[in-house]
Amino acid sequence: MRKKLIAITGPSAFTPNVRSMVEDYLNFNFIEVNSNKQDNLNEVASLCDGIIFAGGVDLFPPYYGSSLKKHEGLTSFDPMRDKREKHLLSVFKDLNKPIFGICRGFQMICVEAGFKIIQDLSFSNISHSPTADGMKLDREVCDDTHFIKFYNKDIKEGFVNSIHHQGIEEPMGTLHDNVKHGLTCIAYANTKSARPDIIEWVEGV
């Protein structure tokens, strides 16, 4: 039987870790996607069983309707990658194939779904720190999610390492009301500040 084939985006310093996850943990095959030609991207989407949007450099602010701001800790950008991944996300959604985003990939998926990105998290205690930070789950949403099914049905909160200086902001209202373009917020980190909590996990169909 053919192994499932997973597309992995890049380039990224984290790509080797994603490859290891796909090969060693999932026992799937993979293909790394760096082409900027839409015909090639469409062919990749038709061949693959799913896609993982990996971590990497910051999203280019004009990509999500913002501008370059001073003192926002912005690092480097790859506008061609932003364009490539936006197209891949659209194609994989149209094909109804599984999509998974890690770090930058998660942020890109959320931005495309209408959530707001925070350019810098220096206001919070989770700003670009490799130490464990608290992650809380909305129990009204979590009970029937992949997260709970995969981990533990009794989990109410846990910890997640954060090395990000950017994040996705919780929209107004309670988490279980935050459904945008089919994505639902199910986990967030308490910033311990006056600002809204940072979304750590979303799921959708």
Concise synopsis of the structure shown:
Helix content is 27%, strand content 24%. The protein is α/β, with parallel strands linked by helices and 205 residues long.
Overview of the structural elements:
This protein starts with a strand and ends with a strand. The chain is globular. The strands form 2 sheets. Strands 5, 6, 7, 8, 9, 10 and 11 form a 7-stranded antiparallel β-sheet that branches. 27% of the residues lie in helices and 24% in strands. The chain has helices spanning 15-25, 38-47, 79-94, 104-112, 139-142, 146-150, and strands at residues 5-9, 29-33, 50-53, 99-101, 116-118, 132-137, 157-161, 167-169, 179-180, 183-189, 198-204. With 205 residues, it is an alpha/beta fold.
What structural class results from the helix and strand content? alpha/beta
Count all strands and give the number. Answer: 11
| Distance N to C terminus | 27 Å
- Beta-strand fraction estimate: 15-25%
Considering the chains and any ligands shown, give keywords for the structure.
single chain; 205 residues; alpha/beta; 7-stranded antiparallel beta sheet; 4-stranded parallel beta sheet
Secondary-structure topology with pairs:
Blueprint: E1 5-9, H1 15-25, E2 29-33, H2 38-47, E3 50-53, H3 79-94, E4 99-101, H4 104-112, E5 116-118, E6 132-137, H5 139-142, H6 146-150, E7 157-161, E8 167-169, E9 179-180, E10 183-189, E11 198-204
Parallel strand pairs: 1-2, 1-3, 3-4
Antiparallel strand pairs: 5-8, 6-7, 6-10, 8-11, 9-10, 10-11
